[in-house]
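Friendly challenge for the regulars: who can give me the structure tokens for this chain first? No prize, just bragging rights.
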Amino acid sequence: MSVVTGRARTRLRVAFVAYLAVVAVITMRPAPPDDETLGLARRFVDWLAAAGLPVTLPGMEAVANVVMFVPFGVLVGLLLRRPWWVVVLLGAGTSALIETVQRWLPTRYPTLQDVVMNTLGAAVGVLGLLLVSRRAGTGVRSRPVGGAGVRRRAGRGSVRARSTRRTRARPPT
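First reply, four minutes later:
Bragging rights claimed.
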């Protein structure tokens, strides 16, 4: 899925390691008491609700889980030469690993909803990458699943498939 090489690839790797470090700090550190963290979040949710928006604290947490994994989809999508669905599965696996580790942390509570929302975030990230790259004509794209012998060329505004197999002339009948 990637055509990134050289220095740009090295920068992406550094950015990905930094991103993973931030995710590890957010998800693995001991959770502070509710009043410290949730006080600001509750005030923000109350302010949004007073403005007439139907916002809840659990809904805000779900959105935060999606947003946290959007960079995963973008960065892994740029770094790997794999179809989009592999990037989404890697996002799901990474999230499941985080939730599994949280099971043994005394102040953390693993949930299946977090895995689903994080996976959705990875999918949104890779989808955004595919849309932007297609529109820009940069050639970052997903390989066809059964597409041996099919080469895709990025052109202005469209992507055309062209067969790389040679066809044999049929003998006259």
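Residues 144-151 have pLDDT under 50 and may be disordered. Residues 6-163 form one domain. Your move, everyone else.
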